[in-house]
Design goal:
Oligomer: homodimer
CATH architecture of chain A: Orthogonal Bundle
Number of strands of chain A: 2
CATH class of chain A: Mainly Alpha
Order of helices and strands of chain A: HHHHEEHHHHHHHHHHHH
Strand order of the largest sheet of chain A: 1-2
Helix content of chain A: over 70%
Number of helices of chain A: 16
Largest interface: A-B, 44 and 44 residues
Structural class of chain A: mainly alpha
CATH superfamily of chain A: Farnesyl Diphosphate Synthase
Shape of chain A: globular
Strand content of chain A: under 5%
Mean pLDDT of chain A: 89
Low-confidence stretches of chain A: none
Number of domains of chain A: 1
């Protein structure tokens, strides 16, 4: 564990310094919005994965930070837009950017960050990297659209649920790992291993998030407990719970949920039932299965301290409580 | 004129076919939003400039359409976001996308188009093109932000007004010309001439727009007459009018405008005064001066039928009534 602590304590401040210096190049009116979303204490998972993957594939250059941070900027841009789209009032326990700064500045600040991310990547003169970034934005926005199209859709097939979380979350994490491998000039097989690693981490990450939404008190997660239910988002814990209900009960609940007819008490009761039925826990177990797949992808990396570090990071990801 | 008609009648349908085929690759839920903004009858100025500039610089390849259309997609994405930002209800005489489809789908469709534009350009494996596109988005969003920061600011210096229109309009038109020259592998001097051409066309284009906002009836332009005044946008006709007012009258009007204290009748009266004072006409004259600068930049192009065509397009641009 001390190796992880070491690398996090070395790399995260370096990432944050780069994020800040790039933010300072932006129009002064955008900077407060950007700092609000960037500096609210994210885990920097995406840039860390880019850096560790590049290092694990033998890359020793100093110029990994702009690439790594471009993925964090892209992530931040999608957060800015998504909070407007979701009408979310809170982000990591603080008010969302659009609540603080208004939708206008927040939409435009998101666009500026998308442009900045693209520009940072363009500087590498490597079209593969540019394509990865464009594809990541396309997939992320498409995943969001799919999620919105299926709001309150309790008949959501599991395959569609996985398409949603692959798009809105996993693809960008996949691109983070893949970018590191491409920067390192890795072989196609290793680039694929990096992509698989990121994809499985991304799915696991979102599954844990979806479980936490049912179990974690707002004081820990910074988001309201049961927020997904309140917003009408149908995620795995609810889908698993509904699968186990008798037909008539399921039909009635489904109808009420679809019509947004549940009171705050109904929702809290439903949330309690989902948790009591073990469905949040089962969702976490499935996250564990995806982390095992991530480990299998990682096993294809050449042996290195950084590959070991990535492996060490996976278990705590599953155990996290926010 | 028949040469222009020829090329427009040949190239615009080809551009529209490519725009449609690229739109069909997008998620089905995004397509109606994209078609709404794309197919509302734009002039395709940006892709036409890319194609004509590339041809004028000797490029004979068939693969110019994705690049040309990436600039139209980028333009459409910024229109989608800007109409939300401006609260605009109309776009080219039809209801805006966010009014028809809601802000959520419109924000995300804009992000999808930004990603698509980047992906189309990434396929050229030419980092210069990618950088131009990123810079264009960055400048456009920054110009919008600057404009919003100066809403109702009647003390706006002319230099800031020109910074706003350079960012929000001219930079993307500049990039359209520059991309054509870069694709053609033109010399740095010719790439600069293309950039200058696009910059001056862009400024002229926005000046004509700002004049038309004061003079063109909604039935012709598809936008309400005096829309900028109603939205609190301070553009050149108003700035020129204010410069000519006696100090006390100017101070009073400025204060009322800043505080949004003008009634619909006051605004219509003000609009009439601006026009009667010749300030919309003077704005058009300034557009003519920028078109002369555009002609000077064009004169540096090697002689070609396409360069002549660009020249022929400039004069009607000034005379347009919508």
């Amino acid at each position: 564990m001390s190796d992880i602590a070491d690398i996090v304590s070395r790399e995260v401040p370096a990432i944050n310094r780069y994020l800040e210096s790039a933010t300072e190049t932006l129009n002064p009116m955008v900077q407060p919005v950007v700092r609000h979303v960037l500096l609210a204490g994210g885990k920097r998972l995406r840039p860390l994965l880019t850096i560790l993957t590049a290092r694990a594939m033998g890359y020793r250059g100093d110029d990994v930070y702009p690439l790594a941070c471009s993925l964090e900027f892209l992530h931040s841009a999608t957060l800015l837009h998504d909070d407007i789209v979701d009408g979310a009032k809170l982000r990591r326990g603080r008010e969302s950017a659009h609540v603080r700064f208004g939708s206008t500045h927040t939409i435009l600040a998101g666009d500026v960050l998308l442009a900045l991310a693209n520009r940072l990547v363009a500087e590498y003169d490597n079209p593969e990297l540019t394509k990865l970034l464009s594809e990541a934005l396309l997939q992320t926005a498409t995943g969001e659209i799919l999620e919105i199209a299926h709001l309150r859709d309790v008949d959501l097939p599991l395959s569609t649920y996985f398409s949603i979380i692959t798009g809105k979350t996993a693809y960008l994490i996949q691109a983070s790992c893949q970018c590191g491998a491409v920067l390192a000039g890795a072989s196609p097989a290793l680039i694929q291993a990096a992509a698989d690693l990121g994809h499985h981490i991304g799915i696991a990450f979102q599954l844990v998030d979806d479980a936490l939404d049912y179990t974690s008190p707002a004081t820990v997660s910074g988001k309201p407990t049961g927020g997904d239910l309140k917003e009408g988002k149908v995620t795995l814990p609810l889908l698993l719970y509904l699968q186990g209900l008798p037909f008539e009960e399921r039909r009635r609940l489904a109808e009420d949920f679809r019509q947004d007819q549940l009171s705050a008490e109904d929702i809290e009761y439903l949330r309690g039932n989902v948790v009591a039925g073990g469905h949040a826990e089962r969702t976490r177990e499935m996250a564990g299965e995806y982390l095992a797949k991530a480990q299998a992808a990682l096993a294809k990396f050449p042996p290195s301290p950084e590959a070991e570090l990535i492996g060490d990071v996976l278990a705590p990801m599953l155990a996290r409580d926010k």
